[in-house]
Amino acid sequence: MRFVLACVLLASLATAVLAYRKEDHEIFDLVSDLEASEGKGTTFYSWLEVPPTAPLAQINKAYRKKSIEIHPDKNPGVRGIHERFARLGVIVNILRSPEGRERYDFFYKNGVPKWRGTGYYYTRFRPGLGTVLVFLTLLTTALQYLVQMVNYSRDLNRIRQTIHDAKLAAWGPKMVQSGGKRKVKVNLGGGPRIDEDGRTVPGKVIDMIVDGDAVYIPESTGELYELSEETATPPALARTWFPTFVRGVFQSAIKGKNEPARIEGEDDEGEGSDHRSNPATDEIAAPNGTSEGRTPKQVMRAATVKAGGRRKAVKR
């Protein structure tokens, strides 16, 4: 945590130190426009045909010569001549100012930076609302996908460790398989602790069955759920918020279009209604709180709480 804070502080300081002023942004624009108009590599000095060490008198003389050469009155109908003439005046004003020339000479010697700060690009390429929304959508979707990748890696490691611990408890350090199935207890972490009465309370332990290379989690119904790396949920762009939102809107629209109109005054449980339950889909909760009566999906979710990931049901 301290390392992250230190990095943020250093980045803030670097941003403050490397922040460019309004005058610098003006120079950046002039450099870009001059190269676009007069050719790549053209500088303030080369356009005026003076050396970088030229004194102010020589710069003024070069300016008078250049202004006559590209004056709009002497170049009627020439495309872009007014912009070139106006640009010449701004460049000379920068070179006439001691501070302005010092700033330009710095970039002349070290090169104009490729990244000129967010403020520079924002003021010149001001994005619209649609662009901002698209950018935020892509950014949040990418961040959510990154979180999925982290969670997937964490679940894989937890499943692998649980499988290893189960096999270790069943076959011993040498992992010599013998005797068929073995029922073992596996600690899922959070080692033993001492309660208020001074008694040792073990960590979170679950029963597991090891059968060869396969590891299962037994349920009270008698079903076995295999624990494997395939039960971890891999990352998927389809499960990020924006595709999920689009699917939800589309499904709601389709459902509303296909739903028949309800007849006014019709009783939901009248004679014409058919409310026969489907035992293959209805979820009936068991009164004793066990897994009896729960759907396979519910049992799978319960197994997930125990050891992480999804489970693959195996018939006994």
From TrEMBL:
GO cellular component: endomembrane system
CDD domains per UniProt: DnaJ
InterPro entries: DnaJ_domain (IPR001623), DnaJ_domain_protein (IPR052606), J_dom_sf (IPR036869)
Transmembrane segments: 128-147
Region span, Disordered: 257-316
Topology of the protein relative to the lipid bilayer: Single-pass membrane protein
Nuclease found in the keyword field: no
Name the record gives this protein: J domain-containing protein
